[in-house]
Specification:
single chain, 15 helices, about 260 residues, mainly alpha
Length: about 260
């Protein structure tokens, strides 16, 4: 059992009322006994376990794993983890649940993937197709849930870069895995930043930690030259962008010289 899963279980146990806990215990037994039961149980979890946050207090000392989770999402993870190991069973049921579910069920399933991945050797990259499906949607919550540690572990480089870019484009703050940051991702984000500046628009804050690591990529994108454009709106947007970039660039790194003049 991983710490994240253990923390979710502990928070869920503390959060659920006695009748909700009894329902979940019965649901877990039913799923472990008959895996097909999850198809009926998964959609009705919120009806029995509530729809509130997993940690309603947010008090200091709360388990970090509970942050941002809703009680039904955590209950659905526990339900999926109870499925017995059998070749192809878990991936097949995940696909059926995702395709039949509404947004809350799909979001919960996507959030479950990085929790289940280290727990279940029968998962592997079998749910990558669902991640791609979510990333093709225009639902911000699904796109955000799809760009998870599971995606970082299993998407190929090109797909992962495009997933990050889609989040930025949609205004969804991407949680970018450190190990997946490379010069090509920086180039794509720099081009996106340049396009926004050229239109006189501000650049999402999420791109700067990546771009600050690749000053040569930023320079090659033409973004610094926008600070000297004759169009006032375009020039002002570029100077704001370069100021934000400089704020993320440590002194001593060549990119710190990109700070625009006042």
């Amino acid at each position: 059992m991983t710490k994240v899963f253990a923390d979710l279980c502990a928070c869920l146990e503390a959060r659920l009322a006695p009748d909700a806990a009894a329902w979940l215990e019965a649901a877990l037994y039913a799923t472990a006994t008959d895996p097909m039961a999850v198809l009926e149980l998964f959609p009705v979890v919120a009806r029995h376990c509530g729809r509130g946050p997993l940690d309603p207090t947010g008090a200091p000392g709360a388990r970090p794993a509970a942050a941002g989770w809703a009680a039904p999402d955590a209950a659905r993870v526990v339900l999926l983890a109870a499925l017995p190991p059998a070749p192809g069973l878990l991936p097949g049921l995940l696909t059926r649940l995702y395709r039949a579910g509404g947004t809350p069920e799909r979001r919960a399933l996507l959030r479950a993937l990085p929790v289940l991945d280290p727990l279940r050797s029968d998962l592997g990259d079998a749910a990558v197709g669902l991640v791609h499906e979510a990333l093709r949607s225009q639902d911000n919550s699904l796109v955000a849930a799809a760009l998870s540690p599971y995606a970082a572990r299993h998407l190929d480089a090109a797909a992962y870069r495009h997933a990050v870019l889609k989040c930025v484009f949609m205004g969804v703050p991407p949680v970018i895995a450190e190990e997946r940051v490379d010069a090509e991702l920086a180039r794509m984000l720099a081009d996106h930043a340049h396009e926004r500046v050229a239109a006189g628009r501000d650049v999402p804050e999420d791109v700067w930690p990546v771009l600050a690591r690749f000053p040569a990529v930023v320079a090659a994108s033409g973004l610094p030259g926008e600070a000297d454009r004759p169009e006032p709106g375009r020039r002002a947007a570029a100077r704001r962008a370069l100021t934000r970039l400089a704020a993320h660039t440590p002194a001593g790194v060549p990119g710190h010289r990109l700070r625009p003049c006042e």
